Amino acid sequence: MEAVGVAVLAGDQLTRDGVVAGLASRPAVEVYLGERQRSARVLLVVADQVTDEVLGGIERFVRAARRRDLCVVIVASEIREHQVLRAVEFGLAGLLHRRDAGFEQIARAVVAAASGRAELPGAVTRRLLDQLRAVQRDVLGPRGLTVSGFTERELEVLRLLADGLDTAEVALKLNYSQRTVKNIIYGVMTRFGLRNRTHAVAYAIRGGAL
To answer: What is the pLDDT of residues 93-128, one digit of tens each?
Structure first.
């Protein structure tokens, strides 16, 4: 398996040098240095306390990164709830307590993040789910939207298209006119920049909406 490219952001040079040296012997990861850092798949942030300054450094790195799929793993002794939520906006995929994080655990978290798996403490995961439910209940729900960005009506149509039904069959099944079904499909294609109904169904599936 190809090593995961990782950039290291730390509060001081001594800590950064120690992390770089500690990860050097882990074949699953490769530390990127210099200009190459901007091509890393994972940004590893090591801090005693996550501050607004640390979060600002993460944001600047993410904005300058060449990869849009950059993930962030934070190793810290202290991070507050609102800072976790802000870090999620930057691509947080792993959070380890500094006291308990050896280089083997850090390497595993980096690999997991690059593989699309989030490794977060249970309390953090529960809080994020609570926030997500609140957004669905208080913001999206009243507007007829779901967290996927689709309305319930759009998802009904896309599910039936995914099952192989054509426009007329979808209209009959949902008791809509064919014109209404076509307008729903067109609205989805326009909003997400999709080419056709097949692309719309594939987009919804890849995004986990179907």
So the answer is: 888 988 888 899 999 999 998 988 877 766 666 666
Question: 11 with 48: CB under 8 angstroms?
Answer: yes
The list of the chain residues with pLDDT below 70 reads: 1, 121-148
* CA-atom Rg of the chain in angstroms: 21
CA distances from 115 to 49, 103, 119, 128, 145 (A): 27, 18, 11, 20, 29
Q: What pLDDT, on the 0 to 100 scale, is given for residue 132?
A: 59
Please provide residue 2's backbone torsions phi and psi, each rounded to the nearest 5 degrees.
-70, 140
Dihedral of CA 79/85/88/89: which sign?
Answer: negative
- Inter-residue contact 97 to 76 (CB < 8 Å): yes
Which 3 state secondary structure label does DSSP give 197?
helix
Q: Which of the 8 DSSP states describes residue 47?
A: E
Amino acid at 202: A
CA distance 20 to 29: 11
Written as six digits, the tokens of 159 are 């599910």
Diameter of the chain measured on Cα atoms: 68
Nearest-angstrom CA–CA distance, 74 and 77 = 10
Long-range Cβ contact pairs of 30-37 (< 8 A, separation 24 or more): 30/3, 30/4, 30/5, 30/6, 31/6, 31/7, 32/5, 32/6, 32/7, 36/5, 37/7, 37/61
Q: Which residues contact 132 (CB under 8 A, 6 or more apart)?
A: 147
